[in-house]
């Protein structure tokens, strides 16, 4: 019975997580930069996925992961949310195994910033493309986005055709002044 309750809780927790997009990441980064007064030279490095091991970077990483619901100081990494974020169109069991390898329980008793940074660097060292693509993939795989893109292309094509027809027809049309 306890096992079923645990599965239900995990299912609800995973079901309530919303996969974050590149826009979410940009917004979150901006909030953390502002909250932590991160210097501009750091921001430029972060944009290039360059994260040096110092207090500013470590606390910035903790802030971003926390706001994106991937880490909290009470429990550490949220494995289920990470699997949802990183496991889009991937084998979830495989992703969970990899995520778990980097999600320690802070046995070292590090400060929260170091704890978050350590896991983040582990993810990046083993799965940089998976981490990056999980943020960018939303644009190409979100069904709503595909519909909008499809209709945008259709609309553009239709407008181009109408414009072409009008350009060809207008010189031939004689307008009467009734």
Could you characterize what this model shows?
The protein has 178 residues and is mostly helical. The chain has a single domain (13-141), classed as Pheromone/general odorant binding protein domain (Recoverin, domain 1, Orthogonal Bundle), CATH 1.10.238. It is 71% helix and 2% strand. The chain has 8 helices and 2 strands. A two-stranded antiparallel ribbon has the order 1-2. A hairpin with a 3-residue loop joins strand 1 (71-72) and strand 2 (76-77). Helix 2 (22-36) packs across helix 4 (55-67). The radius of gyration is 24 Å and the shape is globular. The protein starts with a helix and ends in a 9-residue tail after the last helix.
List the helices and strands and how they pair.
Blueprint: H1 2-16, H2 22-36, H3 40-47, H4 55-67, E1 71-72, E2 76-77, H5 79-86, H6 92-102, H7 112-141, H8 143-169
Antiparallel strand pairs: 1-2
Helix pairs in contact: 2-4, 4-7, 5-6, 6-7
């Amino acid at each position: 019975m306890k096992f079923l309750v645990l599965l239900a809780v995990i299912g609800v927790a995973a079901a309530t997580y919303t996969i974050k997009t590149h826009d979410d990441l940009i917004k979150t980064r901006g909030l953390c930069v502002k909250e932590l007064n991160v210097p501009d030279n750091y921001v430029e490095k972060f944009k290039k996925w360059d994260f040096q091991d110092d207090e500013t970077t470590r606390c910035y990483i903790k802030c971003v992961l926390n706001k994106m619901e991937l880490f909290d100081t009470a429990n550490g990494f949220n494995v289920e949310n990470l699997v949802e974020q990183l496991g889009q169109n991937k084998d979830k069991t495989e992703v969970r195994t990899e995520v778990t390898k980097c999600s320690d329980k802070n046995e070292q008793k590090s400060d929260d910033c170091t704890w978050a940074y350590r896991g983040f660097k582990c993810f990046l060292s083993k799965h940089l493309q998976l981490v990056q693509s999980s943020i960018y993939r939303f644009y190409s795989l979100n069904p709503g986005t595909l519909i909008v893109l499809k209709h945008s292309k259709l609309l553009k094509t239709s407008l181009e055709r109408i414009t072409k027809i009008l350009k060809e027809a207008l010189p031939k049309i004689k307008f009467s002044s009734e």
